[in-house]
Each structure stands twice: as C-alpha cells, then as structure tokens.
Amino acid sequence: MFANPAAAAPAASLGFAPSQQSQQSQQSQQPQQPQQTQQAQQAGSTTAAAAAKANLHALDDPNVYHWICQLTYGPNKEQALLELGRKREQYEDLAVVLWSSFGVITALLNEITSVYPMLSPPVLSNQLSNRVCNALVLLQCVASHPETKTLFLQAHIPLLLFPFLNTTSRQRTFEYLRLTSLGVIGALVKIDSAEVIAFLLRTDIIPLCLRIMESSSELSKTVAIFILQKILLDDAGLQYICATPERFLAVSQVLTYMVEQLTLQQTPGRLLKHVVRCYLRLSDNLEARRLLKQVLPRQLKDNTFGEVLRDDLGTKRCLAQLLLTLNED
C-alpha cells in the first residue's frame, strides 16, 4: 500500500490558473483575411516573440538586479517576490539567474518554511498565502528550466512543498497553496523525464495527488490528475502503481469516484479527458487490464458521456481503444 502522506509543506497556484476571459473583438469594416493567412501571421508573430525573448537576458535589466538584491538583503522582500514573478515570462534565463544568485533560493525557501506553523491549525492569512504563492511561482520557474531542473531535484526542494499538499482545509488561502505547489510538480513532469519520475516515486506524491483528486477544487484536481497521468505514462511509474493490487486499487477507486462525480457536472470535459487517459494507460499492464475488466465504471461503458465527448475526438478515440482492449480475450 502507498506510504502515509508526509506532514505539512508549501502550496499555491501557478501556470495552471484559469485564463481570464478574452476581450471581445471590435467589428471592422475591412474584409476579413483568409483563415490560412491569419494563422500564418499568428504563427510568425509567435515565433518572432519567442526569438526576441531568447535574445533578452535577465541581468541586462537593472530592475531584475534591484529586485534580487531586495529579495536577498532588502526590506522589500514581498514586493520583490511579486516583481520577479512578473519578469519570468519576459526572460528565458531568469531561472538560471535566480538559481545562481547568492542567497536567492535560501530566501525563497525561508518564505515557504516560515508559514509551516500556520498550517495546523489552519490560520494562514490572505496576505501570507499570496506571499508564499509568489515565492512558489519563482520556484516553478526554476523547476521548469532545463538548466536548473536537475539541480532543483538534487536539492530535494520538491519535498518542501509536501506539507502544503498535505493540507485539507477548504479555505481559499489553502486551495491556492495546494494549487501552486501542484503547479511546481506539474512543471517538473510536463516534459517527459525518467529522472523526475524516479524522484517522485520515492516520495508520497501519488497518495497526495489521489487525496486532492477526491476532495479539492476542480483546478487542483485537474493538476493532480495531470501529474498522475504523467507518472503513469512513464514505464517505471506504470510498473510501480501496478506492482501490487493495493496500489492499483487505490488509484482505480479514486478514478471511479471521479467518474461518478463527473456524471453530476454539466461540463466534465477537462477532467474526463485525463481520467480516460489514465485508465487507458493502466490497461497496458496485463494484470491491471484483468482487474479493470471488473472495476471499470459503468458510465464509461454505456455512453453516459457520449454527448460530452461528441466534439472531443481525441478522448473519444482513447475511450474506444480502452473498451476494445478490455474486450479482448
């Protein structure tokens, strides 16, 4: 059976937060350009923006240097966290600068560990929650960069997030902490890496994600199941989860519960997509396939989600492949 989750650690919301509603486009008297031309222009502008970003260097910006000094030595640490977080989309090498600058990572870890005493009992204020979330945003930046990801793992920094993931309070301050901490782990697994999965399998990330998938907000559930899916897609992760009936059942029971909850929602598409893909990947293991024939939720067999999946050809195809695999002799 999975090990018991670790005690308290940090959390918050990062790149997975819902996007703001786009502004309504103004009506134009000019004739519309052909769709292919518009797509080509958009692709060109995206490529140009990426190239421009790659040519920018964080330390060429005097404001970056100023806020790093404030974060490490100055009295304006809270503002420094916010301002540096705004710079992460502007400079590709910000993660390298943060990791290499003396005292920065220590300052970020101090921000995280300083709120541990407020996790139980749950007395975290909005201001402190936002402050820690801003620190976690910068850690996510470091976790996602190819030059700093391995160093981030070798320092075992992800373990410091587990106390936040282990919280159960439904207060918004704690939901943000969980979501942002999940975002850091999500950044680690986003690009397939056997090293990352091997590290996570030595931790309690699977039982923590399972609990969040059962009882947290929809956004946190989405990030948690994304992490589980990425672990399953790795051969070592699939083997680990299917190594014992207890582990497999722990995962399948939570997936079944999620399916039952999704039948009550009007728009279950995003979560359903991940649930179906988790089941499909589990079916690649012969022993798990045998058990899935007995425990796969009825709603995935009787077209309960037919209308929901009508326009989602990818998930519809995955579900059809799952059912075909389980019906094989």
Automatic annotation (TrEMBL):
One of its GO terms (cellular component) is CCR4-NOT complex. Pfam families: Rcd1. InterPro entries: ARM-like, ARM-type_fold, CNOT9. It comes from the Eukaryota. One of its GO terms (biological process) is mRNA catabolic process. Residues 1-46 are annotated as: Disordered. Belongs to the CNOT9 family. PANTHER family: CCR4-NOT TRANSCRIPTION COMPLEX SUBUNIT 9. This is LAQU0S07e00980g1_1. It comes from Lachancea quebecensis.
